[in-house]
Design goal:
This protein is α+β, with helices and mostly antiparallel strands. It contains 14 helices and 17 strands.
Length: about 550
């Protein structure tokens, strides 16, 4: 027999080796076909993101200028009022604006601090003057104040409320946008913001080693002629591939060795307690009823050992109960043939002397024993069980004629159902001696009926004698639930009926007792589907 530990090691180790080889091959093929396109895509996404960032920053400035123009038109601000608002905006946005000026209808530009000058001849003014646009953006020009590169946002104030407030001209330094563009450092590359003619010059350039360079571009949204470019050596796009492969190989080897060690230890930790449990089972197989599995483990194998121990306890308990019950049944039985012959002799002698009542009693007793002892089968039909208990009741009615009467009922369609032998008589006997016999001053009735309910066959023995005291009823129900006979609480007859039902059909079935308001019911529950199982016993 091959070792389970060796099987686990071989199978799992082999699966890991095959998986690792397949993984390396897959990584190589995938990286060859996807790494460079993926890196290009990721780089382009970064460039696009920077482009969107520049566009967003610029759109904020346009939005602020547009808000000023809208407020000036709505509130009909004059030049002084608008310049006051402009001064507050510039004060809070010092890095965003070089200056913001008010332009009158004649093209004269003025501010709070600088001298006025005319912008009539400037291209961006002429462009807005002869267009329907709300604003225009100039090309890059140099500021007269500090020689910095700026663009001018010239926004129309519409509807016009004052000839001195016709336009708002905001000078925006492009240094911030250039900083955003140059903040791209992927793969040792460098981003650059190209504006207007710079873009055309860039396209016409043929730098050295251009065939080894990868170029990425992204237009700046809502700013025509503005483009963000980024270039880097093509070799940089694939330089990590071989290093990744080497790292994967090294990491996989280390993990494989570590996994192999863990696998050996894991297999040993699984197999060792299984072997211990196997030895215990072998000892039980050899007849040792004292040996038990170690219950100290807290894992599934420990749980398996505890379940095995509980199974042994129940098995030995069932065997002991079975032997004890068989012994008691043997002690209570009388040899059938001798009994039948004796009863036949008594019946013949009574008939010869004309004692008809004796003949009737002997005949009922003979029927009772014939049905009770039967042919040794564990099962009888429901109809036979009713005949058997009727014989018993007939005998008892002769004895307790003044206080006992009975009725039996069952549907003929269920009369052929096989049930366990000798179920009803112990219940009837219990009802007579504990419920009816103490009431000597009135006649009481025992009612026995059988019926189907859902998927169950129910046998009910009811009497209208003395109720079972509440404390005693609770003790009886507790003893039935525990499945243990208790002297003075649960007699052998009731225990035997309940226990045999549970052994034959399982825990959901058995005996249930209710008592109160002048009525006591003992209810037996059997499965209807169990009839096929029962029939196999009869064969």
């Amino acid at each position: 027999m091959r070792s389970l530990q060796r099987k686990i090691t071989y199978y799992v180790g082999g699966c890991f080796v095959l998986l690792f080889i397949a993984l390396l091959v897959t990584i190589h093929l995938e990286m060859e076909s996807t790494v460079i396109p993926l890196n290009k895509s990721l780089t382009q996404q970064i460039v696009n993101a920077r482009s969107d960032q520049i566009a967003y920053w610029f759109e904020q400035r346009v939005g602020e200028v547009e808000l000023l123009a809208s407020l000036a038109s709505e509130h009909k601000w004059g030049k002084e009022e608008l310049l006051h608002e402009i001064g507050q905006l510039v004060e809070t946005k010092r890095e965003a604006y070089e200056s913001i000026r008010v332009v009158d209808r004649s093209g004269n530009s003025c501010s709070l601090n600088d001298k006025p000058f005319s912008i009539v001849g400037r291209p961006y003014y002429q462009k807005l003057l002869y267009s329907e646009q709300s604003y225009v953006i100039s090309d890059v020009i140099q500021s007269h104040a500090n020689q910095a590169d700026i663009v001018v946002i010239l926004h129309r104030v519409k509807p016009l409320a004052d000839d001195e407030v016709a336009y708002i001209a905001a000078a925006v330094p492009i240094g911030k946008m250039q900083e955003i563009a140059q903040d791209i450092y992927v793969y040792d590359g460098m981003g650059k913001l190209l504006v207007g003619d710079q873009l055309g010059a860039k396209r016409n350039e043929a730098p050295k080693g251009a065939e080894q360079m990868a170029l990425f571009t992204a237009a700046i949204r809502n700013v025509p002629g503005w483009t963000l470019t980024f270039q880097l050596p093509k070799s940089q796009l694939s330089q990590g591939m071989k290093q990744t492969q080497r790292s994967a190989l090294l990491t996989g080897s280390v993990i494989g060795i570590f996994l192999l060690v863990l696998l050996v230890l894991l297999a040993a930790s699984i197999v060792k307690p299984i072997r211990a449990l196997q030895r215990v089972m072998k000892q039980v197989e050899d007849g040792d009823q004292e040996v038990r599995s170690n219950e100290q483990r807290k894992d599934e194998i420990g749980e398996l050992g505890r379940s095995f121990n509980q199974m042994l306890v129940k098995l030995y308990q069932y065997e002991h109960e079975k032997k004890e019950m068989e012994l008691r049944l043997i002690q209570e039985q009388i040899k059938p043939h001798f009994l039948y012959n004796t009863l036949d002799t008594i019946q013949w002698m009574a008939a010869d002397h004309g004692a008809d009542d004796v003949v009737e009693m002997v005949e009922a007793l003979s029927t009772y024993f014939r049905l009770g002892l039967g042919n040794g089968s564990q099962y009888v039909t429901l109809e036979q069980e009713f005949h058997h208990v009727e014989s018993y009741l007939h005998i008892q009615c002769v004895r307790y004629e003044e206080i006992l009467e009975y009725e039996l009922f069952y549907d003929e369609c269920i009369g052929h159902y096989p049930i366990i032998r000798f179920l009803l008589q112990p219940l009837v006997e219990n009802a007579i001696y504990h419920g009816i016999k103490p009431l000597v001053n009135r006649k009481s009735k025992i009612s026995i009926r059988a019926y189907k309910k859902e998927q169950c066959l129910l046998l009910e023995v009811a009497n209208n004698g003395i109720d079972i005291p509440e404390a005693s009823l609770a003790s009886i129900q507790e003893a039935l639930l525990a499945g243990v006979p208790q002297k003075g609480v649960l007699g052998f007859g009731l225990y035997s009926v309940d226990h045999r039902l549970r052994l034959a059909y399982g825990e959901p079935y058995g005996l249930h007792i209710q008592s109160g308001k002048g009525s006591t019911q003992m209810l037996l529950t059997l499965p209807l589907e169990g009839r096929h199982h029962v029939e196999r016993y009869d064969h």
